[in-house]
Design goal:
Elements lengths: L43 E6 L4 E5 L22 H10 L5
Antiparallel strand pairs: 1-2
Length: 95
C-alpha cells in the first residue's frame, strides 16, 4: 500500500480457503463514507439579519458550503426564548 498504490481502502484476503470456508461476521470492509447528517449543539447565535436572510452563528458548522444548507434550531438548554430575545434586542431587531 505504499509507493503510489491506489488501493488504500481495498481489502486483501478476507477469508481462508478450505477451513473455515467463509468470511467471519464483523469483518472490516470498505464502504461509503460521509453523506450523513450531523448535529452540533450549544452554538451561539450572534446575529439574525432578516434583510439579508442570514443567521450568523459563532462556532463551526460541519460540511461544505452549499446554498440552502439546512440549519434546524431547537429549544435546548442554552437556546431558551430569553436568550434569543436578548440576542435580538442586542442587535436592535427587537424592541
Amino acid at each position: 500500500m505504499t509507493h503510489g498504490s491506489k488501493s488504500h481502502r481495498a481489502l486483501g484476503s478476507i477469508g481462508a480457503g478450505t477451513t473455515p470456508g467463509h468470511v467471519y461476521k464483523g469483518k472490516k470492509m470498505p464502504g461509503r463514507m460521509g453523506g450523513t447528517k450531523t448535529k452540533i449543539r450549544k452554538l451561539k447565535i450572534v446575529k439574525i439579519d432578516n434583510d439579508l436572510r442570514v443567521v450568523m452563528i459563532k462556532g463551526a458548522v460541519p460540511g461544505r458550503y452549499v446554498v440552502g444548507n439546512l440549519l434546524q434550531f431547537s429549544w435546548g438548554e442554552c437556546m431558551t426564548p430569553g436568550s434569543v430575545r436578548e440576542t435580538l434586542q442586542s442587535n436592535g431587531r427587537l424592541e
